[in-house]
UniProtKB/TrEMBL annotation:
Gene designation per UniProt: ST0926
Protein name: Maltooligosyltrehalose trehalohydrolase
Taxonomy, superkingdom: Archaea
A Pfam family hit: Alpha-amylase
UniProt domain Glycosyl hydrolase family 13 catalytic: residue ranges: 115-198
Biological process per Gene Ontology, one example term: carbohydrate metabolic process
């Protein structure tokens, strides 16, 4: 899978798909490591690293965040941050028959005054009392700014930082499941927003000068 993968608590493999690039360097905190490229355009390297470390990649266009980042604490232009995604779940899977689904479409940024997953947890009982059986969360891929409908996301594997990030997201799902609420996630994988899209420097498809068939327009 693209991006960082924890092999152990203190060892991480970084993978960057960048067929357009001849060279890529990992900047982990303040250390730099040259990455190796294979015949399919993947750059890889395994180094000692831990949760909370910040990193980025240096390519011919300069220094960029990881397009496959799991967390962008400083927004779409900031450095990426390692996060293990370890979470102790207290709930079990919620299974609801399709005919019993009463879906509440929810926008995290405007559902509460604070606009976060943590504050949304406090209103889950309200949804239960309404008779809702499932929550459909509008897209939470990392996007520019603090609030957005979610359809301009540019980091497809990172949860919006202003909503609380991935751990807050997992907490919200866990709390919903404990109340018997199913959670549906609205995702957008067919396009990315205009700001913070660094994938165009790395490979085809997200390059505006190429068609979906990877040929020049």
């Amino acid at each position: 899978m693209f991006g960082p993968s924890f092999l152990s608590e203190n060892e991480v493999e970084f993978i960057l798909w960048a067929p357009y690039q001849k060279k890529a360097t990992l900047r982990l905190n303040e250390e730099k490591y040259d990455m190796e490229k294979d015949e399919k355009g993947y750059f890889r390297i395994t180094v000692n690293a831990k949760e909370g470390d910040k990193y980025s990649f240096i390519i011919d266009k300069g220094e960029i965040p990881d397009p496959a980042s799991r967390y962008q604490p400083d927004g779409v232009h900031g450095r990426s941050q390692l996060i293990s995604l370890k979470y102790e779940w207290k709930s079990r899977e919620v299974k609801i028959k399709p005919e019993d689904l009463i879906i509440y479409e929810l926008h995290i940024g405007t559902f509460t005054q604070e606009g976060t997953f943590y504050s949304a947890v406090e209103k889950l009982d309200y949804l239960v009392n309404l008779g809702v059986t499932a929550i459909e969360i509008m897209p939470v891929h990392q996007f520019p700014g603090k609030k957005d409908w979610g359809y301009d996301g540019v980091y497809l594997y990172a949860v919006q930082n202003t909503y609380g990030g991935p751990y807050a997201f997992m907490k919200f799902i866990d709390e919903a499941h404990q109340r018997g609420l199913a959670v549906i996630l609205d995702v957008v994988y067919n396009h990315v927003g205009p700001e913070g899209n660094y994938m165009m420097f790395l490979g085809p498809y997200y390059d505006v000068f190429r068609s979906l068939l990877f040929t020049k327009v």
